Amino acid sequence: MCARFFLFSPDEAIMRLFRMVNFPQIAPRFNIAPSQPVLAITNGQHGFHVNHFQWGLIPGWLKNPAPGQAMINARSETAATKPAFKNAFRYRRCLIPANGFYEWKSAGNRSKQAMCVRLNDEPLFAMAGIWEQWQSPDGTELETCAVLTTAANGLLETIHPRMPVILRPDQFDRWLSSDTTPLPQLARLLQTFPAEEMQVFPVSSYVNKVVHDSPECITPIQEQKTLF
After folding, report:
1. Which of 28, 66, 164, 176 sees the fewest Cβ atoms within 10 Å?
2. Is 221 exposed, middle or buried (0-12, 13-18, 19+ CB in 10 A)?
3. Is there a contact between 84 and 71 (Cβ–Cβ < 8 Å)?
4. pLDDT for residue 50 is more than 50
5. CA 79 to chain centre
6. What is the predicted pLDDT for the residue at 225?
7. 123-135, pLDDT tens digit by residue?
8. 128 and 169 in contact (C-beta within 8 Å)?
9. Is the pLDDT of residue 226 over 60?
10. What is the pLDDT averaged over residues 133-151?
């Protein structure tokens, strides 16, 4: 599962990771939520290309989506065959840069503790994504995306059974390659990231509100323990 994430690396760091010459200036974001625009990298005619997609994929064939029909995640195991995702998986793949993501852990008494997940040695990484272009009845075009998920590793499985697919830099080109790449080759990229290369720590309930978007969202706190 991935329902919130953050991206605050300097533009120069993003340019280096994705081997880009030009990059638009972006503001740090510490609480990116569904329906908001997210930075995404696609494969253009002259190398990697920067896009801003709305987070929550709307299939191109959907005529009039109802509220809540946009899908922020797609299961990597079935994305190649599900009607809502298969065209995007085959023809419109993307990389979604992030410095980390959030998950909520059951803390007893029906409460949940916000947890921040990051990589140990790589402050910036890329999640595997797919995107779609949807056209409204009035002709307005909207580009939307979803994050691919896979089974959680041993570090995260006690918090949530799913986690985003995290790709390594040497996998970027293959994921963004032409649509002729055999599906089995793409599927081999969609593995669970090793637990030993990740860290998770509690953060305050400040992050629970989408309107909060500051470094306080990722500041570690002492996890509250329950007696029951």
Report:
1. 66
2. middle
3. yes
4. yes
5. 15
6. 55
7. 999 999 999 999 8
8. no
9. no
10. 92
Which pair of tokens denotes residue 28? Answer: 């740090």
Would you give the distance in Å from CA 216 to the centre of its chain? 21
If one compares 24 and 223, the residue with the highest pLDDT of the two is 24
How many residues are listed for the chain in this entry?
228
Sole residue written with tokens 């402050």: 123
Contact status, residue 151 vs residue 160, Cβ threshold 8 Å: no
Q: How is 112-164 classified by DSSP, letter by letter? A: EEEEEEEESS-S-EEEEEEEEEEE-TTS-EEEEEEEEEEE--TTTTTT-SEEE
Residues with a catalytic annotation lie at 2, 103
Q: Which of the four CATH numbers 3.30.470.20, 3.30.1360.70, 3.90.1680.10, 2.40.37.10 does domain 5-218 have?
A: 3.90.1680.10
What is the C-alpha end-to-end distance of the chain, expressed in Å?
27
Is the pTM higher than 0.85? yes
Closest CA to 53 of 67, 30, 70: 70
CB 102 within 8 A of CB 29: no
Token pair recorded at residue 186? 């793409």
Distance CA 7, CA 16 (A): 15
For the chain, percent of residues with pLDDT exceeding 90: 79
On whether the CB atoms of residues 152 and 161 are closer than 8 A, the answer is yes
Q: pLDDT: is 209 or 25 the higher one?
A: 209
